Amino acid sequence: MDLEEALKVVGxxxxxxxxxxxxxxxxxxxxxxxxxxxxLVGSTPEYRIEQPDGVPSGQQELLQRxxxxxxxxxxxxxxxxxxxxxxxxxxxxxxFFVGLLVGNVVFGPLSDKIGRRPVYLTGLFxxxxxxxxxxxxxxxxxxxxxxxxxxxxxxxxxxxCFVLTQEYVGKSYWAMTGTLTSMSFAVGIAxxxxxxxxVRPWRNLAAVANSSGVLFFLMSVTLPESPRWLYSQGRTEQxxxxxxxxxxxxxxxxxxxxxxxxxxxxxGNHGNGGAGVLQLVIHPVLRLRTMVLMYVWYACSLVYYGxxxxxxxxxxxxxxxxxxxxxxxxPAYPLCxxxxxxxxxxxxxxxxxxxxxxxxxxxxxxxxxxxxETLLSVTSFALLGKLMVSAAFNIAYVYTSELYxxxxxxxxxxxxxMSCRVGGILAPFVPSMRALHTSLPFTVFCLSGLSAGCLxxxxxxxxxxxxxETLEELGSSSRGRVLETKALLPxxxxxxxxxx
Length: 500
Prior knowledge:
With 500 residues, the protein is mostly helical. Helices cover 65% and strands 2% of the residues. Helix 2 runs antiparallel to helix 8, helix 5 runs antiparallel to helix 8 and helix 7 (174-198) crosses helix 16 (378-403).
């Protein structure tokens, strides 16, 4: 039997798989805390600069006294990151995103080569270690380097964690596990805001937020290797052992479970014929899909983080604001679960529609005067746009994992996530376009969302289709098309003949 049939015997989403997925999903809460850390530990309170009277003008700069008027303990107050040193706060945040970019590029292909489990556990272990280095940093330089290294680990294991939640279960549950992963990240943002409210000293906050990673690491040690990855590598016997173990923990009998060999993986790693990042360029089907998906991920990130920065200008408690930016995403995920499993919507149309709606919300902001306090304010449309792009982002994760074969899935996700990080790095610069015209930033977000939505329609639908395991399976006419119109023609002809 093939892997999908074996999972039906074992249980596509049995009790053991639910526990394993729960551990991986809850790990996203820890990763969200690390991603949002700089927002609170880098808070800049109100301050005033006092100058003593009767001091010569040449010595005034040296004898200035800084007084913080807010009771906030952060890296700004400890290392006086104000005025000419204020850029260091943003630099630390940017280094984290640079680390995410590096982690996506390195960890994705690495987990395709040596396995999901060792890469995930190693990355999580070192992220916890570097997280404590952040909390104990004696100076800014150590703090900045630790944020870079945490970002590398965070970006790498984020991909592997997501892929594992997909590969432990049957394909019919991929959409649900992918959505749960994104929801837990959004909940993690809100929980971090609550934690920051009760734990004010920044070193204590960094240490407490990082300590949850120790618990999740200990819970993850017992997780098995992905049976899909083992099967795609031609390690059929090991895949059978993992499936029997899962079946035993699910309470199902699978003693006679036997997997058939996969054409491209019979010879183990050599059978994959260089399945890696290079195949994303060489393979004609993968090349076109990757180009479209990279732009979709880039646009999602640009609009998501750009709108978040715009909404961050609202007044009020910083803790409430951080929580709101996380909770506003939650309604998007039930919408995803509903639409992407409907035959009239599916993955492709749902993702494209949500992207276009996000772009349309940004378009509407250009007709609202600044300072409007009614329900139809710029902030309301910005948050609506974030809700829509969050839904599109979630679908992009699930959809991308289904468009790539198992042997190259992590590499594909890594490249797409790399373009996503580029969008995140560029997003802070878009609001500065207000100097040219007040509506220019939202024009950029509008065009990005609309163009990505239209390009997404070029991809094939994956709903209810079998998951490809090897590159050879992409050669079939049913999987090898970028556009799916022609692939549906024979079915239409059959309908016509039946009706005659």
